[in-house]
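FYI - complex with guanosine-5'-diphosphate, inputs then prediction.
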Amino acid sequence: MNNDTICALATANGIGALGIIRVSGNEALTVVQKCFPSKNLEKQKSHTIHYGYFMDEDEAIDEVMLSIFLAPRTFTTENSVEITFHGSPHIGKRILETLMKNGARMAKAGEFTLRAFINGRIDLSQAEAIADVIASENEASRKVAINQLKGGITNEISFLRTDLLNFVSLIELELDFAEEDVEFADRSALNQLLNKIELKLNSLIESFQYGNAIKNGTAVAIIGKPNAGKSTLLNALLKEERAIVSSIAGTTRDTIEEVLHIKGHAFRLIDTAGLRETIDEIEAIGVKKAKEKVENADVLVYLADAATKDFTDDIEMIKSLLRNDLKLIICATKIDEVIPTHYENAEQIFRDEISHEFDFIKISAVENQNIQDLKNELSSYVEQLKTSENNVIITNQRHFEALQKSLDAVDKVKEAINFQISTELLAYELRNALEYLGEISGEVTNDEVLGNIFSKFCIGK
Ligand code: GDP
C-alpha cells in the first residue's frame, strides 16, 4: 500500500458557511506547508488548530483554519491536515489545485476509509458502517449504523471465531500425530461450540429481514380497483410528509416511489406514479401491473370501496396477488360515504374467502378516519420483524451472504463429525467455516471485495 499524499473535499460540494478539505499521507504536512507560510507546521503539536492564509505562491486564496493530526492518532493513522475554508466551491477547487501542484493527488472514492482499514484502525464492517452512518435517513438506520461502527457484528462473531480457531489448532495437532490415533479435540465439545455458533449465525441471519427494512425501507403496494380511493389515501398518508418527503426514482424500473416515515421507519410506496395516471390507463394496465407491483412489495394494502357490497372482484384480485411472505392489510374505504350497517359484514365476507392472515381496517381518507390505525399496523409489521434476542442487526447484503456461507460451512463440519469422517476433511471444513466468519470483519479478504466496497463510497470519505 503506498501512502502518497491524497486530498479531497470532505464537505458537500456546494455553497456553505464553511468547507473542509482533507489531506492525508506521510508528506501531508510538507505539502500543506508549501501553501501555508505563516507557521512552521513541523513544530506544531498533534490535534491543534492554526489560523492563516492559504497561498498559491504569492497569491492568498482564502483565510483558513488548519487542523493538524499527527500519525498514528488519526483517522487514516497517517499524518493528516484538515483545511477549513470559506464554503465557496470555487475556493475549494483552487485549494485542491494548489495542493496538487505541491505534491498531493486527488483521493479516490473511499480512499481515506480504505487507508483506515488497511492500516488496521477499523475493521471492514466498521468501514462499511461509516458509509451507512452517512447514508442514514432515519432514526432506525442511524442507530443500527452507529452500533455497527462501534464494532457490533464483529464483536458478536469474533469470540466464536477465536473458540473455533482453538479447535482448528487441536485438530491440526491431531494430524501431526496421525499415526498415534489420538484425539486432542473433544468432538462433543466441538459439537457444542458448533451448535452455539449455529444459533448465533441463525439469529444474525434472521435479523436481516428487519435490517433490510431499516436500510432500504419497507416496500408497500397500494392496490385496488379504479376509484377505490388509492390516490386519495396516498395523499392522506403523505400529507404531513410533504415537506420532508423525497420522490426517488426506483432502481429496477422507471417508477416513482414516495417515502413515508412512521415511528422512525421508512416505507416506500411502490410506483405511486401509477396512482396518478388517469383511470382509463389504470384499467388498461390492470392485473398484470398490480402483480408486478406486489412482486416487489413486503406489504399489500388492498383498498375495497365500502359502498360496494359485492367484493367478488376484490377477493379474486387479492387471491391472485398473495404469496406466503406477504403482509396483507385490507381497507374498506370511504366509510364516511355510507352508513355503518352497509359495510359491517364486509370483514366477514373477506374472512370467509381468504385464508391468508390479514388485518382489516375501515377508513375514510377524506375525513382522515382510522388512517392512524393503518399507520400503526404498518409500523407494527416492521417492529415484529425485530428478533427479540438480537442487539446486532444485519443490514448489509455482504454480511448476510457471508453469514449464510458460514452457516453452511458449520453444517458441513457437524455432518463431518456425525459421519466420523477423516480428520483431514474435518480440518478442511473447519478452516472453511473460519474463513467465511473472517470475511465479515475483513480478516480474510481480497482486492476485488475491497474494490467493490470502497468504490461505492464518495470521494473525501
Ligand atoms: P383511485 O382510482 O383508487 O386512485 O381513487 P381516487 O383516490 O381517485 O378516488 C376516487 C373517488 O373517490 C374520488 O372522487 C375521491 O374523492 C373519492 N374518495 C376517495 N376516498 C374517499 C373517502 O375516504 N371518502 C369519500 N367520501 N370519497 C373518497
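The chain has 17 helices and 13 strands. Confidence is low (pLDDT under 50) at residues 243-254, 276-285.
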